DNA sequence: TATTGTTATACTCTATAACTATA
DNA sequence: TATAGTTATAGAGTATAACAATA
């Protein structure tokens, strides 16, 4: 692949080398995500979890308790999807819904002790898969990638 | 966001700061892709194109002529999807299917002169949107991001 | 009247599988 | 028998909208 160039027409402003078209970024990100997702999904499958379940566990492990609205906002998940994913997790005993005293509409979601266990187990079991995912990047490079990606994705936020 | 930590349980091997869970990479990539895709789709909409159409144009502009099978391989697109996308592009006059002499099953896809025009116009019209997409990264940082992302995504390839 | 969470519905995307015409 | 391309179908994923309870 990528053997020929400029087979079509004269040089133009956009006649760039390789994948330098700005639009290629979108495609590159899609394929990067596909690769990461298939690796990570493989690490979670033995635990009966999918990435979207783990997104909730990560957020709860990180932020503590959140109601479903804030949880959805935090992980960019539709509120209807939040309901289904929390249903799954609650059925598995990994999170609990807790009513709050001041507003009977709201239900806080908490990670359970068992949820924390599974969270840890996923990281232990997934370590080899994760190593394979990033092995051709050095540790510094990986950190740089995460940093740049984070700033690309959340342009308005200072911390994260 | 990201105000509390360790609200749950004692410190563990996986009790990392922030989004340092390996699994968070998948989620970060998803959101990075979502942000890029919505920006770039906005740049293509006035031209009546979607990202998947542009994926084909980029590949043809870059590699010259490809048959549909190789085209699908190059951009990780299912052969059935290739048919539909090439249908759209051909209807718009941006690519042409050309039979080859040696194998009457195969149809090469070529970008047309009008396809090159639209390719260039997309970059011209999209420039402000693209600037907005990456403005909080320096040029060097953007190049680094693309480089790391490319190596992350295509671990086995030397060039690209 | 607005909001939280739930349920139901519709729509898009993708993956699969059949089908044709060639080889 | 295998392959390139096409078409049709089914499944998953996502987005939308209606709904109930509460504020």
Would you write up a description of this structure?
The structure is a homodimer of 160-residue chains. The first copy, chain A, is 58% helix and 8% strand. The first copy, chain A, has six helices and three strands. Chain A has a three-stranded antiparallel β-sheet. In chain A, β2 and β3 form a beta hairpin. In chain A, α1 crosses α5 and α3 crosses α4. The longest helix of chain A has 23 residues. Chain A is globular. At the A-B interface, α1, α2, α5 and α6 of A face α1, α2, α5 and α6 of B. The structure holds a DNA duplex (23 and 23 nucleotides).
Spell out the key features of this protein.
homodimer; 160 residues; mainly alpha; 3-stranded antiparallel sheet; 8% strand; globular; disordered N terminus; DNA-binding
Question: What's this entry about, in short?
Answer:
The structure is a homodimer of 160-residue chains. Chain A is mainly alpha-helical.
Write the layout of secondary structure elements.
The structure is a homodimer of 160-residue chains.
Chain A: H1 22-44, H2 51-63, E1 66-67, H3 68-74, H4 79-91, E2 95-99, E3 107-111, H5 113-134, H6 139-153
Antiparallel strand pairs in A: 1-3, 2-3
Chain A binds a DNA duplex (23 and 23 nucleotides) through residues 67-69, 78-83, 103-107.
């Amino acid at each position: 692949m990528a053997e020929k160039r400029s087979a079509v027409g004269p040089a133009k402003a956009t006649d760039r080398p390789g994948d330098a078209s700005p639009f290629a970024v979108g495609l590159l990100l899609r394929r990067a995500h596909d690769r990461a997702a298939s690796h990570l999904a493989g690490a979670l499958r033995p635990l009966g979890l999918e990435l979207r379940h783990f997104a909730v566990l990560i957020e709860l492990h990180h932020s503590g308790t959140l109601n479903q609205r804030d949880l959805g906002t935090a992980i960019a998940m539709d509120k209807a999807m939040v309901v289904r994913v929390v249903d799954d997790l609650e059925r598995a005993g990994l999170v609990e819904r807790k009513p709050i005293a001041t507003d009977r509409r709201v239900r806080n979601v908490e990670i359970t002790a068992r949820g924390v266990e599974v969270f840890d187990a996923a990281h232990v079991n997934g370590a080899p898969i994760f190593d394979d995912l990033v092995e051709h990047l050095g540790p510094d490079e990986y950190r740089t990638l995460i940093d740049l990606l984070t700033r690309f994705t959340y342009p308005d936020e200072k911390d994260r």
